[in-house]
Design a protein that fits this description.
Number of domains: 1
Shape: globular
Helix content: 40-55%
Largest sheet: 3 strands, antiparallel
Strand content: 5-15%
Radius of gyration: 15 Å
Number of helices: 5
Number of strands: 3
Order of helices and strands: HHEHHHEE
Structural class: alpha+beta
Low-confidence stretches: none
Amino acid sequence: MPIVDPTIRRHFNLNVSAYLNRYPGPVGLVRRLHDEIIPLDPADPLRTNRGNWILLKLLAVRFPALMRRQEVAAEVQRYLHAENTGKRFGGNYLFNG
């Protein structure tokens, strides 16, 4: 039986959103698009990028009234699914906030 998987599941909390939600300071995110792990569907990395979900959860915690507005949440989704958003950083995009 592999030891790595049970060890990580038992001893490490990999819920990045939970950590970010408790951190009140500025956050910088690198949105990795050319990666086999980060997007759930490599054929559609913009829509299935796990970094999108982390950012959406962070925005919902920091700006709950704003993100509850359907038109705002929809616009954020459109932005995250668009090409060439953020500052280019190697093969990825960098978001600062």
